[in-house]
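HUMAN: I'm a chemist; might I ask for a sequence paired with its structure tokens?

ASSISTANT:
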Amino acid sequence: MKLIKKISPIALAVSMAVGGAVVPTIASAEMSANLGIANMYLWRGQNLTPDGPQVSGGIEFSGDTGLYGGLWTSNETGGHETDLYVGFGGEAGDLSYDISYWQYLYPEDTDDLGDQVDLGDNTVSDIVVGLGFAGVGLTFYVASETQGGPDATYITLDYGMGDYSFLFGTWDVDAPDSEYSHIQVSYAVNDNLSLTVSKASDDGAGVEEDPLFVVSYSIPLDMK
């Protein structure tokens, strides 16, 4: 993800990434895949595909030890993004926990003139730590590689109630005019179709403050 433009909620972090370092776990892991389409790429209160829809796909591995991993890719403005994940999650009584490492790769992008450029090894990454209790989740996304950019942490507080979910997200950035917050409400129409409304509050970062309306559809793929 690009700082500050982009440094993607805990449910996604828990469901995707690679635990390839533990051979017995991967050997007995369950594998699944999915495809998705949406009218925009909604990321932390921003639309990353203002000129068209988002098309994405991922493959996931998970073991009974709590290790998980996978790959997810999507188009975005100026090019495409590929995310790699590895992490561990579990429960202790009513408390759930998760810690993961995400690396975001951008093999190509556009420069200020709109020309395509090769970014080579242009990558950034997050360390993600999440806690959940009684339907409430608190997640910290700490940027671990900023390519010379400022220190940045994105924090979310979310709550699920039936088919509805609510999220508040905010930035803590060690740079002037780079922070903003947003609220988000989602409704799961069924297992595949969801509707989301997101509203950002610009604190000087220059983000769009008009509400964003997202319709997304996901298709699970049978990997058996």
